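Input (structure):
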């Protein structure tokens, strides 16, 4: 448990002042809270004595009581402001650090992590930790101050009555401790049921198209219905158990008051105790019931949040991407964009066989290289190794003659403009999506220019708000081809010596592709480009064509070389040409 909390303790020093003030407020408010019932007792004692002077005295004491209560109230308010406020701020710090850490994690972390699980750790686990350490410890702290003060005051008034009253109060604590684990278990079941229900709904909504296409709405509904039933069952179980606990506490509280009334009543009758002080006692008993309950609660809440903290720690313990694997030589200016791959072998963590094996080739600065080959040949993997999305073995890839594992990540990545295979856009305006690629502001004219190069200019005029059209989940749904071309435009805005295009025009027709490639040629002339394509006509003009198959380079050369060689490339090219001609005839 201690290790789990060590991380959160780091956030304490910066909130020293509010924590100190909060602690002072706890002490101040509890002192006054314990003092106030004595005033009331005195007032009642005065009334019992009777006479006009006593009434005046009682009223005077009543005013003091009011004043003390008021100050105690202000202290209690400030205590919550300082302590609960601090817990919220510390939780924010924790959440922010957690987010930053997740952002820094390597691609292979995301390969094996469910987003839903990650979100739960960032939100409900952080909240569990915050609750137990903020409000939770506040309750414990105030009880630790209140309890001895109240007991001292009670002993001062009537020692034996104190003993009689504490019995039932301790019984309350025992009951809460006994029932506490049951409550916690049921609370956890409810949270799991909520998690299952939302996961079910989320998947069903995300797959809405598939559900509709297969007309499986009834299946989805019944699955959801089942999860929903489960949630109701767990929730009712928890509610019943809580009701049992609350009921028992009422009975025990009543019992405590009865004991005080009976035992104290006898003392009043025998003249040992003033009637007013009996009332004081009963106020103390009332005051101590809740802290007794809360201590039991908080102990359980702390246990739960220790588990939450461990789940959070599991993420923090994952090492961030390493910026440099081997000591950098002199950190170079990466401007030319020459790439050399030598004997590169790489295997994904979750994979049984290497995605690339002994791959070697060289790309001259400013030239265009095409990567082609059947599905699963390792083309995307090769591109992701160039930008060190996955970490290549050191010495296997060089950019401008520098081993890329010795180039700081930031600098390495700034050398590439990437269009990944799965076109991802943020759910915001088209303009904001493009601006993502530039430092500073993007003018509308420049945005239109790159959209024209990417072949999206005509469609743009049809978008309801032009560049300010919101795309994605919250707005206009773009077609696959439109999305691809937007990501091409975004990459064009990035001033980088190397352009990586991963099958980025697969969703447009041949004519459109040819048109876009013509427009892109200008941009590619100034940079090194690596183009992955399935349609071989796309890459005919490339300076070098590398054919990958099952992770190995099987052919390499210019279009003319490869057609002459008569291998996979020549066959596939002939097939694709035939298909195109047949389409043309039809
Ligand atoms: N993140 C990953 N984890 C485990 N295995 C992976 C991962 N990414 C790719 N692979 C595996 O590596 C091999 C190469 O995949 P890759 O995506 O590089 O192929 P590709 O040539 O880009 O295929 P396509 O033309 O279909 O895009 C495949 O066998 C694939 O299953
Ligand atoms: Mg691919």
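Output (sequence):
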């Amino acid at each position: 448990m201690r290790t789990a909390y060590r991380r959160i303790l780091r956030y304490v020093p910066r909130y020293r002042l509010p924590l100190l003030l909060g602690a002072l407020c706890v002490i101040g408010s509890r002192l006054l809270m314990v003092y106030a019932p004595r005033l009331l007792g005195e007032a009642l004692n005065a009334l019992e004595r009777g006479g006009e002077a006593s009434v005046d005295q009682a009223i005077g004491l009543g005013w003091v009581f009011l004043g003390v209560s008021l100050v105690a109230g202000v202290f209690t308010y400030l205590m919550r402001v300082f302590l609960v406020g601090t817990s919220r701020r510390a939780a924010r710090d924790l959440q922010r650090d957690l987010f930053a850490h997740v952002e820094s994690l390597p691609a292979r972390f995301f390969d094996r992590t469910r987003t839903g699980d990650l979100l739960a750790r960032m939100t409900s686990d952080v909240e569990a930790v915050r609750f137990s350490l903020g409000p939770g410890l506040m309750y414990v702290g105030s009880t630790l101050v209140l309890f001895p003060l109240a007991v001292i005051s009670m002993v001062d008034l009537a020692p034996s009555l104190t003993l009689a009253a504490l019995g039932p109060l301790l019984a309350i604590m025992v009951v809460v401790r006994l029932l506490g684990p049951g409550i916690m278990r049921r609370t956890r079941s409810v949270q799991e049921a909520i998690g299952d229900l939302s996961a079910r709904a989320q998947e069903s909504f995300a797959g809405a198209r598939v559900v509709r296409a297969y007309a499986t709405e009834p299946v989805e509904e019944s699955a959801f219905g089942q999860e929903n039933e489960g949630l109701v069952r767990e929730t009712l179980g928890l509610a019943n158990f809580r009701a049992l606990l609350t009921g028992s506490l009422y009975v025990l509280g009543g019992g405590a008051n009865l004991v005080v009334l009976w035992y104290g009543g006898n003392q009043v009758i025998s003249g040992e105790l003033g009637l007013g002080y009996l009332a004081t006692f009963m106020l103390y008993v009332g005051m101590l019931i809740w802290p007794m309950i809360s201590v039991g609660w908080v102990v359980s809440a702390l246990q739960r949040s220790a588990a939450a903290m461990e789940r959070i720690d599991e993420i923090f313990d994952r090492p961030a991407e390493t910026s440099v694997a081997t000591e950098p030589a002199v950190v170079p200016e990466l401007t030319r964009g020459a790439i050399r791959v030598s004997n590169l072998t790489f295997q994904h963590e979750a994979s049984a066989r290497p995605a690339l094996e002994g791959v070697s080739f060289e790309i001259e600065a400013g030239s265009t290289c095409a990567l082609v080959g059947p599905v699963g040949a390792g083309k995307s993997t090769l591109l992701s190794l160039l930008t060190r999305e996955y970490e290549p073995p050191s010495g296997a890839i060089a950019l401008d003659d520098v081993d890329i594992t010795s180039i700081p990540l930031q600098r390495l990545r700034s050398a590439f403009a990437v269009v990944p295979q799965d076109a991802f856009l943020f759910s915001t305006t088209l303009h904001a999506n493009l601006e993502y690629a530039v430092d500073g502001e993007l003018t509308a004219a420049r945005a239109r220019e790159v959209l024209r190069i990417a072949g999206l200019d005509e469609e743009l005029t049809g978008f309801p708000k032009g560049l300010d059209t919101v795309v994605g989940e919250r707005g206009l749904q773009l077609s696959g081809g439109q999305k691809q071309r937007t990501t091409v435009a975004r990459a064009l805005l990035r001033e980088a010596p190397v352009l990586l295009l991963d099958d980025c025009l697969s969703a447009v027709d041949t004519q459109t592709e040819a048109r876009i490639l013509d427009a892109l040629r200008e941009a590619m002339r100034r940079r090194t480009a690596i183009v992955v394509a399935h349609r071989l006509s796309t890459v005919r003009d490339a300076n070098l064509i590398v054919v990958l198959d099952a992770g190995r380079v099987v052919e390499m050369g210019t279009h003319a070389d490869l057609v002459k060689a008569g291998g996979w490339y020549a066959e596939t090219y002939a097939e694709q040409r035939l298909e195109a001609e047949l389409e043309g005839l039809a």
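Notes: The chain has three domains: 2-316, 339-415+496-585, 428-486. The two ends are 73 Å apart (CA to CA).
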